[in-house]
Predict the structure.
Amino acid sequence: MSDSYRPQVVDHLVRPRNAGEITDPSGRGESGDAACGDVACFTVGISDNVLEEVRYKVYGCAACIAAGSALAELVEGRHLLEAARVSKADLESALGGPLPAGKEHALTLVLDALHKALEDHWNRNAGEMLFDAPRRRETGGRSVVAAMSGGVDSAVTALLLKEAGYDVATVTFRLHDGERGSRSCCSPDTVLFARDTAHRMGLPHFTLNLKGLFARRVMQDFVGSYSEGRTPNPCVACNAHVKFHASSFLADELGFHHVATGHYARVEEGPTLARPVDESKDQTYVLWPVPRDLLSRTIFPLGEYRKTEVRAIAEERGLAVAYTPESQDICFIPDGDYRGFVRKKVAAEPGDVVDREGQVLGSHAGVVDFTVGQRRGLGVSAPTPLYVTEVRPRSGQVVVGRKQDLEVREVRVRDLNWFLNPGEAARVQLRYNSSPVPCAVEEVAEGGWIAYLDEPAIGVAPGQSAVFYTGDGERVVGGGVVARAGS
Amino acid sequence: MTEPVYLDNAATTPLDPRVLEAMLTHFGGRRGNPSSLHAFGGAARTGLEEARESVAELVGASPGEIVFTSGGTEADDLAILGLARSAGPEKRHAVVSCVEHAAGREAAKSLQREGFEVSWVGVDADGLVDPAELAAALRPETALAAVVWANNEVGTVEPVLELAEICAERGVPFHADAVQAAGRIPIDVSQTPVSTLALSGHKLYGPQGIGALYVREGISLEPIFYGGGQEKGLRSGTQNVAGIVGLGTAARLAREELEDRVIHERALRERIMAGTAKMPDVSVNGHRERRLSNNVHLTVSGVEAESLVMFLDSLGYAIGSGSACSSGGHKASPVLLAMGLPEREAFSVVRITVGKDNTAEEVDGFLGAFSTAVAQLREISPLYAG
């Protein structure tokens, strides 16, 4: 690698192509930071998914200016799918070969600015009501939008689809500001990593900014649940309102047929969800709220694989993947302190810790600190271990009792999403990583259902999901949210 | 294409042909080691000692006070580390300005890692050290103070006489980095009570890889190289005879021609300043009067320095940039930050340094190219509103 610039770089520096700014662009993207010494700005004019006009401005070193110029020249006039495929390596070839050592960030900077302009275009098209508008849906073909987080599962998902002969476009969502490096221009960034991974597979990559939607539909719900004494599941909320809708939106915009994610589940005729081959990774429990019309166009390639196989595929194909911890951690609370997160958003009011008879045993700093089934941090001593059996936000009471007081035999469920005839529901799963219990279901008033459990279940918290399975436990009949549990 | 024009003399100067000629005699077949007793060694010794005299004369020292080093950096390191390490166990404090060349700055940081406390003396917006601030930083346990005679970036000339006198009164050894100053500012250590003073060959139209440290008679230094005890034990290792002869010749020429060079450089500097003063949003950094005769240091709003340097390079003009762009983001110059320049402006600075061989025609050509490059880069800059 040479330390000095190639003639192509100097040529782009002195005679920049496509320099400038479109006054009324379809999208505008900026990357970098004046405080870091590099800023790139792209404006694009898009019509029928073709980049009819591309203009750029750069404040930065010669490499950055030349890379901006070369990129603008490469993508102008191209279809979005072609433009979104242009990689750092392509850009480097356009500049005559590798940049001098230490200048590689120029490629990342200008690509990021262009991709942010495309993102802005999608977000402008989507508007506030991103996902509710009915759209023209293509069906039956072999094109798919694959959601990519930068982790191994989603990367292998995209790869398997590509190898199966699909036209694949990848998409990464910006969901919140807690993502690694998302606020810093000079540190590793999940989106940049996902983009590199997609480009190394030769796939186009897009980003969508869903921060507003995610804050409204997932994070606010999360905080609100705790202050209302419910135990939320943010992954369920995201699947219900965000991830699949956004993938589907992009598929519609591109005229693509399917959407895909790296979840471990299968889609069967109906459509319905079925357990994956790797039961230890089963994610059907969090996928129940995906609307039927979206599930019908969804592919979960990993449903046919074991996690060990997925890792082996990644290794064999040389897919570098981001470090993603294997856990049920909440993505927007990377330190795992969700109490602290909730407390920052809502003021906690002190209240009483009481037993089932209403006798006051102690006091607490706020109901947001408690969830049904909790044993630690009650601040009450007793001869036998005590558990939270109920949280009463209105009166500020936290009810505690013995372990057997946690046992429930009836679960009231609301907000149901049925894939199959409710009559097929023979088992219900009430917590992540627990086994479904045999049950009978009955419809009650206003769309609510009651599950009568054959055997008592423990620690069933309002706000969690109740997912119904067929008698063999293999297929999801439907799911809903636990409203109330009783014995 | 015509010959490129070199306007980066603070980085390195061209080698004076007269210097080269003097050096060539020492690259021939009859090379000896100056420590050897025979005739070969004697010839080398003669060259060495003549050079020592010339270097001593440039700064008003006696030849026995000159130690040859591999360059300015080694001279600064030897002085700062050497003074600190020989000061005694009760003296574990140093006073260093915020506008040192990297050599002085990094040597002081290494002292910090050794357990010394360092007081960093700040500067005003022009890059000047306040003598009162330096005086206030001195303590009974101060092992040394170090201030650059003239800053290598913005060209500000420090009040070294005053600073050195304060230190002398308090009995604190004072080191001056005169790498940029030597040959441009008359230096006389018999009048200015510095303890040590660093010089470099390649800033004086001499060769690269050679420098010298003046060490005042009676000042003790712990060496940083150990070996055969050359250079009075302060710099072991067989001397770079050809380089030393080159430095000696360059020092002699610098002394003889100093006044003419300064008049010539200052005229060119003012010509550049007058030309760039007409351009919008271009401002001068550093002190306007207390300034090296050859230095123009500019903030060019909305233009990143490296791109401007490369652009001008393609037009045949070589100037210096004031920051380094790398994968970890830019590194703003500590000198500019110490002067209070905002970080985002610290990436828009360039240094133009003329030399004795530049001409008014070259400067005029440069001004035209500079104006073209700045206008075009501003056109594509998202940070320049015009």
The first strand of chain A starts at residue 27 and ends at 33.
